[in-house]
Amino acid sequence: MMSDELSQQQHxxxxxxLYTPRPLPQESLSQHIQCQNGLCAPLSLHGRVRVSREGVxxxxxxxxxxxxxxxxxxxDELTRTFADSNVEDNGGVGxxxxxxxxxx
Length: 104
Hints:
Layout lengths: L2 H7 L1 E9 L6 H15 L5 E7 L2 E9 H21 L14 E4 L2
Antiparallel strand pairs: 1-3, 2-3, 2-4
Helix pairs in contact: 2-3
């Protein structure tokens, strides 16, 4: 097996921590949870992702190439989420609406 092929077959653990500048509305949370399920399952990623109004925090494991694909798609989704939502800066972040995904 060539070294490029071998490196794409290797498994890694990726830690994700992204906090939003402004709290997201509840409907954006539900959409993002569905997005995470749609991103992780086809790539055979395992782990746990916490999605809240404050942002995303999680740990995923899988093949290196799949983790890179997840990162690219997640970036696109979050960019779209912030562009589409009319989030008002209310000066604080509420603790409501947290959800966890268990992808084992």
